[in-house]
Every structure is written in structure tokens, then in C-alpha cells.
Amino acid sequence: MRRHRTRGPDGIHEPNLTPLIDVSLVLVVILLVATPMALQSGIAVSHAAASGRSGAQARAARIEITVCDESQLIVNRTRVSRAALGAALQPLLNDSPTREVVVRCGDAVSHGTFVAVIDEAKAHGAARIAVMDR
Predict the structure, then answer these.
(1) Per-residue pLDDT tens over the stretch 85-113
(2) The 128-131 sheet, strands edge to edge
(3) Which of 60, 74, 69 minimizes the C-alpha distance to 103?
(4) 102-116 b/e (C-beta count within 10 Å ≥ 16 → b)
(5) Residue ranges per structural domain of the chain
(6) Cα gap 134→131, rounded to integer Å
(7) What SS3 state is found at 69?
(8) May I ask the CATH architecture of the domain 56-131?
(9) Does residue 69 register a pLDDT over 60?
């Protein structure tokens, strides 16, 4: 007696492309919707040439803060502790006609400290804050 091997039904030899096409079209729609939102900037940038003041007048009117490390700052060339920033900043902002603050940061300073200094300047009444490269 010979045994005949029975073959099972033939497998599917062609892949089903419908799910692949559906997923691809969904990704294209998501990218079309998300791209304009990704390109919008949340920070307004103004050019120095647009202002009518000269560079020396603009520098004299602004308040400069340099974050040296976690506990030390320089406010208009005066070394101040981090805890005393509000007390040093408030009179300068009250006397400033533009209430502009320029913040610089050292490389060793954490992002949290840098953002906390910017938040404190805003809380004490800074109208415009600029971030400059050191």
C-alpha cells in the first residue's frame, strides 16, 4: 500500500495591499495636517534694524542678566545671588522706559535654572525678554 500525501489547499500567494494603502493614506493626512503646526513659531522675533533707536540707546535702556551658575547672576554688571534677583530686578524695571530684559546663560547652567530666571523676570514686569548667545 502506498500512501498518497495529500496536499492542503494552496496558500495565498498575493499579499493583501488594502491595509498597507489605508495606513499610508492615514499617515499622509496626518502629515498634511501636522506640518503647518510644526512650522509655526511660538516666539516672535524682531530685528534690531526695525527699531528707530540707535544701538547705544537700545543697550542703555535694556536690562542685562547673565546666569553664571545655579546660584550666581550678573544683573547690569553687578553680581547678585539667585535669591536676590527679584530685589535687584524690580527697581531697574521700574526705571526702564522699555522694560526690555536680555538674558544670557553659561554652558554649565541647567535648563530649569535658565527658565526660572526668565519666569522671574516676567513676573517682576519685564515686557520683552530676549535670549542671547554668550
Answers:
(1) 989 999 988 888 888 999 998 788 888 88
(2) 78-81, 72-75, 63-67, 100-105, 128-131
(3) 74
(4) bbbbeeebeeebbee
(5) 56-131
(6) 9
(7) coil
(8) 2-Layer Sandwich (3.30)
(9) yes
Q: What angle do CA 84, 85, 87 make, to 5 degrees?
A: 70
State the burial class of residue 98 (Cβ atoms within 10 Å of its Cβ: 0-12, 13-18, 19+): middle
C-alpha cell at 27: 499617515
The DSSP 8-state label assigned to residue 116 in this structure reads H
* SS3 label, residue 122: helix
C-alpha cell at 118: 526668565
**pTM tops 0.70:** no
